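Q: Please design a sequence for this.
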């Protein structure tokens, strides 16, 4: 059975079957949509809270102050971004993406679910790599500065050169580990470190 609706001089034909199917689809999808919205709201709230807590914790233990004393820290400081704020944003994005993935999964959007799963699965590697790079480079700077300070105090010749060499090698090692954690190919860096190792040997 069909209804004929006239409007604006045009004839619009709509079947009862189509209307019934649409209503049924909407009724079935509505709970999933509501659930997805709730998940997104919870994810947004958790992301903001967790990001703020981690940022406050890092600030409290003085990570930002320690970072400023290193060459890496000075470079980051010039960009106008503090380390706590950086990790605040990073954690927020991670939580937000998890929430989006969960919401998409609830909505049963297969294609989006697949891609969101790939992103969510990779993000821990990225965050881990960032942690390694930042704190590893901080440690490398600390070791380099310590060698320089000890060398000057003991009046050791070429202490600055030794500090620079050690710092450079540690930088390379940290880069290799950090980028490998991010699943980025570091074949060239491995070759450089191997060559340096053979040279030092």
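A: Design:
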């Amino acid at each position: 059975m069909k209804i004929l609706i006239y409007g604006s001089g045009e004839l619009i034909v709509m079947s009862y079957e189509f209307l019934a199917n649409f209503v049924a689809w909407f009724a079935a999808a509505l709970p999933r949509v509501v659930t997805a919205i709730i998940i997104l709201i919870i994810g947004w709230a958790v992301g903001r809270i967790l990001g703020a807590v981690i940022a406050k914790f890092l600030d409290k233990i003085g990570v930002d102050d320690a970072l400023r004393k290193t060459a890496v820290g000075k470079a980051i400081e010039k960009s106008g971004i503090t380390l706590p704020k950086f990790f605040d944003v990073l954690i927020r994005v991670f939580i937000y993406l998890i929430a989006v993935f969960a919401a998409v999964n609830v909505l049963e959007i297969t294609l989006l679910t697949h891609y969101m799963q790939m992103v969510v699965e990779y993000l821990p590697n990225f965050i881990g790599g960032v942690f390694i790079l930042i704190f590893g480079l901080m440690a490398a700077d600390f070791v380099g500065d310590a060698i320089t300070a000890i060398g000057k105090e003991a009046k050791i010749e070429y202490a600055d050169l030794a500090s620079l060499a050690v710092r450079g090698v540690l930088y390379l090692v940290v880069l290799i580990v950090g980028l490998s954690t991010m699943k980025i190919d570091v074949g060239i860096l491995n070759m450089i470190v191997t060559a340096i190792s053979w040279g030092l040997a």
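Q: Thanks. Anything notable?
A: The CA atoms of residues 41 and 99 lie 8 Å apart. The two ends are 89 Å apart (CA to CA).
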